[in-house]
Design goal:
36% of the residues lie in helices and 16% in strands. Helix 5 links the parallel strand 4 and strand 5. It is of the alpha/beta class. The chain is globular and about 50 Å long. It has one domain (2-161): 3-Layer(aba) Sandwich (Rossmann fold), CATH 3.40.50. The chain is built from eight helices and six strands.
Length: 200
């Protein structure tokens, strides 16, 4: 079985997350996707509690088949490093072929990830690429050609949703109605009911 690992802060989960991984499942790239929220991501500070993020993730993917919300990184109580998570998964689930899902925008900073050479050597990847995003090896000088090819060999064009979680948080603070097109109704209502993102 081919399982994709889709990590992130999901603060909040939005239509870009939902449509991208739906595309991977519906088009047969993967059998399942495990959505894996990070407790303490290495490069971000998160003020919102994991309880709120988990609740919104459950809402976001409630209608989708073959999507599982995983709490593996939450149980570690430590910073979430991809190399450690994937190593732990492969030991625990030897019968599964894991693929780490990442966006094309991660190419610029991939060389800064913990033990990135080991991560590349030991794992397989699916690169989600927006249709308007051009990927040329010469633009990523911090990666060798072999590293670049390993990361991009399973590239998939995914739906273009021009928004990020940070933009949604800012819009919610300034003009909440602007974000309705990017959130499911229950997530939008949940954010309002719990007074989330009322400050930035």
């Amino acid at each position: 079985m081919k399982v994709g690992i889709y990590g992130g802060t999901f603060n909040p989960p939005h239509s870009g997350h939902i449509q991208s991984i739906s595309h991977l499942i519906q088009n047969g790239y993967l059998d399942q996707i495990w959505v894996m929220p990070a407790l303490i991501p290495p490069h971000k500070n998160i003020a919102l509690s994991i309880e709120h993020r988990l609740k919104m993730l459950e809402m976001a993917f409630a209608e989708l088949n073959n999507i599982k919300i995983s709490d593996i990184e939450l149980k570690s109580l430590q910073k979430s490093y991809t190399v450690n998570t994937l190593e732990m998964l492969k030991v625990k689930y030897k019968e599964i072929d894991f693929f780490f899902i990442l966006g094309a925008d991660n190419l610029k900073t991939f060389h800064t990830w913990k033990d990135y050479k080991k991560l590349l050597k030991d794992n397989e990847f699916i690169m989600m690429r927006r249709p308007d995003f051009q990927i040329e090896a010469g633009d990523y000088s911090d990666l060798s050609m072999d590293e670049f090819l390993k990361l991009t060999k399973n590239s998939v064009d995914t739906p273009l949703i021009p928004v990020s979680s940070s933009q949604i948080r800012e819009m919610f603070y300034k003009e909440p109605d602007m974000v309705k097109n990017y959130l499911t109704k229950d997530i939008f209502d949940y954010i309002k009911a719990n007074n989330l993102y009322m400050s930035i």
